[in-house]
């Protein structure tokens, strides 16, 4: 939806005021003008909102004869895309309905069509906004209350369907309950018995629904000081309190109250019959959520009182702030300004609400609604606009997050780590972490943040600014460790060959010359070596990779050039699975003090097919990396590897679909050609190349999917082995299972499931039959069951 400003000749004009149009105006100019007027109503203006709405209703009424379809389309679009101004637009529709009954009916029908279309294409978030808009039209006397209740009865009846996923029932229940803050009072006054029955059915459903998935989605494992409630349970508590308060809600802006005398005279419409579309295999429902809580009324004792967690006002405020972020997230300055100009900001501690909502989105599992860096830039803009108050709230929030690191989900700790770089979370006193075990969350977090900061700086700079007492947590000097560079290591096997290689590479030796030098390296696996001497030879790989990476250690670019120049040598030495694994081991030995270099080199080696994804997975879970297993960069590498595998499969699958489409278009053109001279032989000649290409691509897709499945099998199998060993060791030694290592490992397993859930869903049967069987320890099996419950 475009948000065009008025042209220069209309500067100073209030958004809803009538205006004279030049007779020379083109229809397209008038349509753009109408769109601008509708989109801008409700923004800051010299006139009151009520005056602007009344004026705009007059303008639109006058234009209905010529531009009715355009006006209908714009109003339906803003109802879906600008939910933060819901009551403004419902009032506008109410005024138009009062003036033109037929237009009101057409609008209601158009909204129902749009709702059905959204549900058909799995746009469930937008569909919630449309349902809420329709419900608020009851308050504007556009829709009759009994027909709205009938629609909600159809929604609630979905909970009685058999063999449908729980997430389907959850969405319809959420759509019903989340509309009640706007329309509950009106519906209860008109249809109290029916509403009581609906709420009773709702309570019955909420009591019997499964909530196995909740632990996987919680930001914190502890419920103190704020419980991390499942979203439907929290909303149900808020609606119960609203009902107890006689449906009195004090925060929703209701401009239609000013027009009550006009609206109450309008004729109302009944909603067209609406039956929820049936569940299909293509239906993808929103995943369940856990409500993030960080503040309560005690955190801001001097300002306005923050509504309680089970107050419906808290739900309304948070919903509107989420909607503002969703509408403006691409323009951080606009987004920050819109958040701070939220209506009624003098009645609530708005800064606390904004900060809590931003962190709620940043920590949302499995993934934030928007890219993570957006939240950082948005908070910076907010601090610029409110320098006297918002930085203090942000500082208070970051301190709370740091203090609760012990119980924070590991995935969320990763995101806080990235956030901390920009917001100086370490500028406060963090000396408390120095007295703890270095594997505990707080010292580990400080160390990881310093390491991440070094990516944007350099080692000496970090050492200079960090107090000497923190030296134990400071990053290691990121130097290359070249074991053949010290004369004291003359006795090492391959030392003399490494010297020869160094001279040859400096003299720009060819690949053949490198092979010739490497022939002199003895093979510890002598029996496996062939006559050519190029099968898996760990010493050969060690000498070559150590020497090459040492010579190319000056920068990332030098390292990339070295990989490219000697790509043939790498491919030959790492031909076997053992060879690929050993290449990765040597990369780690050389650059163990420079995690970023390891990450970029592994990434480059996957791209150039020196190593494959399964080799990287096996390397990450190998004993050589046990010391770094809980470090952030290890999981950064693993997730990047999985994403590359997934992109590879998608790319080949896309090529296959495009080729099939080309063949279908070719058939269609031929079928429409009435030329009798075409014969079967020319048809075969035309189709042959494409059919062969499709056959080849199908084989490539099957092969890629097999690799993808194998990658996940390797990852989950290694997780199970590591966790089982830990559990057995603890049980036999009488040690507590829940160590920092165990928490990190089990939550990394959850992270793999969550971040790649769409792909893993395809292999659920295989995983259940081969790995996550009933005999597995319940600690590990619980993670798989939680994942299954997410879309159950």
UniProtKB/TrEMBL annotation:
Region (Disordered): 1-31, 663-692
Source organism: Malurus cyaneus samueli
Domain of life: Eukaryota
Gene3D superfamilies: 1.25.40.180
UniProt KW keywords: Coiled coil, Cytoplasm, mRNA capping, mRNA processing, mRNA splicing, mRNA transport, Nonsense-mediated mRNA decay, Nucleus, RNA-mediated gene silencing, Translation regulation, Transport
InterPro entries: ARM-type_fold, CBP80, MIF4G-like_typ-1, MIF4G-like_typ-2, MIF4G-like_typ-3
Compositional bias annotation for Basic and acidic residues: 682-692
GO cellular component terms attached to this protein's record: cytoplasm; nuclear cap binding complex; nucleus
Protein name: Nuclear cap binding protein subunit 1
Pfam families linked: MIF4G, MIF4G_like, MIF4G_like_2
């Amino acid at each position: 939806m475009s948000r065009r400003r008025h042209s220069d000749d209309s500067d100073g004009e209030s958004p809803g005021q009538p205006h004279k149009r030049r007779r020379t105006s083109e229809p397209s100019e008038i349509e753009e003008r109408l769109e601008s007027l509708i989109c801008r109503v409700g923004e800051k203006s010299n006139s009151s909102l009520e005056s602007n709405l009344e004026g705009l209703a007059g303008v639109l009424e006058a234009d209905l004869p010529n531009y009715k379809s355009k006006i209908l389309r714009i109003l339906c679009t803003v109802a879906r895309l600008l939910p933060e101004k819901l009551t403004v637009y419902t009032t506008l529709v109410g005024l138009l309905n009062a003036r033109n009954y037929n237009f009101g009916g057409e609008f209601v029908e158009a909204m129902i069509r749009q709702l059905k279309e959204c549900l058909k294409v799995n746009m469930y978030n937008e569909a919630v906004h449309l349902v809420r808009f329709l419900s608020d039209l009851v308050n504007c006397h556009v829709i009759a209350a009994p027909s709205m209740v009938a629609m909600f009865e159809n929604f609630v009846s979905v909970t009685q369907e058999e063999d449908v996923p729980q997430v389907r029932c959850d969405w319809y229940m959420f759509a019903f309950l989340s509309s009640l803050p706007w329309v509950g009072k009106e519906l209860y006054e008109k249809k109290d018995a029916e509403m009581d029955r609906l709420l009773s059915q709702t309570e019955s459903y909420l009591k019997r629904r499964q909530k196995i998935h909740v632990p996987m989605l919680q930001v914190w494992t502890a419920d103190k000081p704020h419980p991390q409630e499942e979203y439907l349970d929290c909303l149900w508590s808020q609606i119960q309190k609203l009902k107890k308060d006689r449906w009195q809600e004090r925060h929703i802006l209701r401009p239609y109250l000013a027009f009550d005398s006009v609206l109450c005279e309008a004729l109302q419409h009944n909603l067209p019959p609406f039956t929820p579309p049936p569940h299909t295999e293509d239906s993808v429902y929103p995943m369940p959520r856990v409500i993030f809580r960080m503040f309560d009324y005690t955190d801001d004792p001097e300002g306005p009182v923050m509504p309680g967690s089970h107050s419906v006002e808290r739900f309304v405020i948070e919903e509107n702030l989420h909607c503002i972020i969703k509408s403006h997230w691409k323009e951080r300055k606009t987004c920050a300004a819109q958040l701070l100009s939220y209506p009624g900001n003098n009645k609530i501690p708005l800064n606390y609400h904004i900060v809590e909502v931003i962190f709620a989105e940043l920590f949302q599992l499995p993934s934030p609604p928007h890219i993570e860096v957006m939240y950082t830039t948005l908070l910076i803009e907010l601090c610029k606009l409110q320098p006297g108050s918002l930085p203090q709230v942000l500082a208070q929030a970051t301190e709370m997050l740091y203090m609760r690191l012990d119980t924070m989900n590991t995935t969320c700790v990763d995101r806080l780590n990235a956030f901390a770089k920009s917001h100086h979370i370490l500028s406060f006193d963090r000396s408390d972490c120095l007295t703890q075990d270095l594997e505990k969350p707080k010292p580990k977090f400080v160390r990881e943040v310093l390491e991440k900061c070094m990516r944007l700086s350099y080692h000496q700079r970090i050492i200079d600014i960090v107090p000497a007492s923190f030296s134990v947590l400071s990053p290691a000097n990121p130097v290359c460790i070249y074991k053949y560079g010290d004369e004291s290591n003359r006795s090492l096997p391959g030392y003399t060959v490494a010297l020869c290689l160094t001279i040859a590479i400096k003299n720009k030796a060819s690949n053949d010359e490198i092979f010739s030098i490497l022939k002199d390296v003895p093979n510890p696996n002598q029996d496996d070596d062939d006559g050519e001497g190029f099968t898996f030879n760990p010493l050969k790989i060690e000498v070559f990779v150590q020497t090459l990476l040492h010579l190319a250690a000056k920068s990332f670019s030098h390292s990339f050039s070295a990989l490219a120049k000697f790509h043939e040598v790498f491919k030959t030495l790492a031909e076997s699975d053992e060879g690929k694994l050993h290449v990765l081991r040597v990369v780690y030995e050389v650059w163990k003090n420079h995690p970023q270099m390891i990450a970029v080199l592994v990434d480059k080696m996957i791209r150039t097919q020196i190593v494959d994804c399964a080799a990287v997975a096996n390397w990450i879970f190998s004993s050589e990396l046990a010391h770094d297993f809980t470090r952030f960069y290890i999981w950064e590498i693993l997730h990047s590897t999985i994403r590359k595998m997934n992109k590879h499969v998608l790319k080949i699958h896309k090529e296959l679909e495009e080729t099939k489409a080309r063949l279908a278009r070719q058939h269609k053109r031929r079928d429409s050609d009435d030329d009798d001279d075409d014969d079967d032989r020319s048809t075969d000649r035309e189709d042959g190349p494409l059919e062969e290409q499709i056959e080849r691509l199908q084989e490539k897709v099957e092969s890629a999917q097999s690799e993808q499945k194998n990658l996940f099998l390797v990852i989950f199998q290694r997780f199970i082995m590591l966790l089982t060993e830990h559990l057995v060791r603890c049980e036999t030694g009488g040690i507590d299972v829940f160590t920092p290592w165990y928490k990190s490992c089990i939550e990394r397993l959850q992270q793999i499931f969550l971040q790649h859930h769409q792909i893993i869903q395809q292999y659920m049967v295989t995983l259940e039959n081969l790995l996550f069987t009933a005999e597995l320890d319940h600690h590990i099996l619980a993670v798989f069951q939680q994942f299954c419950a997410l879309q159950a």
